[in-house]
Input
Amino acid sequence: MPNSSVEELTINFQDENGVLLVKEADKEILTKGTWATVMFKYQDLDKVSGQYKTPKYAIRRYQKQNGEYRVKSKFTVSSPIQAKKICEILTRWVENETSDASGVEAED
Output
């Protein structure tokens, strides 16, 4: 199924029998355009128990080619503990930034 808009992008994944192996729980679009960045919260199916596992988080970069978005890179945060550490570090880094919003260093 082609993904012609960022809003159509999903991390949901079904097997050939229609069983939802990866279930999207939430999605945030970080950037749109020819290059799009999307953050997903999702759960993998435990095939033994039939229950979905602890949520994971993924950041995916897509490039639009021939009218369709294709994954170009992806990063998975595998646990809530790792997610919290990433948030803490990014918060600390952002709070200590001295540049303006354009990313250009502020001049004295």
